[in-house]
Amino acid sequence: MSDEFEETLRRALRRKDPGKDFAGRVVSRLDASERKPMPVARLESKRLAALRSRWAPAALAACVIAAVGLIQLRQHALDAARASQARAQLLQALSIASDNVNIVRAAVAREESPDS
Predict the structure, then answer these.
(1) What whole-number distance in Å separates Cα of residue 98 and Cα of residue 101?
(2) What is the helix (H) or strand (E) element at residue 72, kind and residue range?
């Protein structure tokens, strides 16, 4: 199978004589294509495609950077809210603990001085 493929490839890629007037045909085609102006709509679409091909990767990168930034901003806001909530809970716990310490201190003071 490999030998058949190689032989077919050799036959397809074998040199062929282009003919006596090959250069003349090429030059005449080039002259003909230079004389025909490109349609404006086609030219505009090529310009637009070139513009898209240049700016599309930059726009995509900007969108990705903006998305990552927004995610980080949201995460920071959530962390700040959690920190605020934790602070409030800590202050409440300290207040409760302080009240309990004051109750115990008063009881100890009563035990130490039974005269009052």
Answers:
(1) 5
(2) helix 40-112
Residues across the chain: 116
Is residue 101's pLDDT more than 90? yes
Contact 116, 110 (CB under 8 A): yes
Top mean-pLDDT range of 30-34, 51-55, 92-96, 111-115: 92-96
For residues 43 and 60, give the distance between their C-alpha atoms in angstroms, rounded to a whole number: 25
**Which residue, chain included where needed, has tokens 């282009």?**
18
Alpha carbons 89 and 85: distance in angstroms, whole number: 6
Token output for 88: 């409030």
How much is the pLDDT for 55?
80
Which residue bears the tokens 């004051």? 102
Query: CA-based angle 42:43:44, to the nearest 5?
Result: 90
pTM for this entry: 0.41
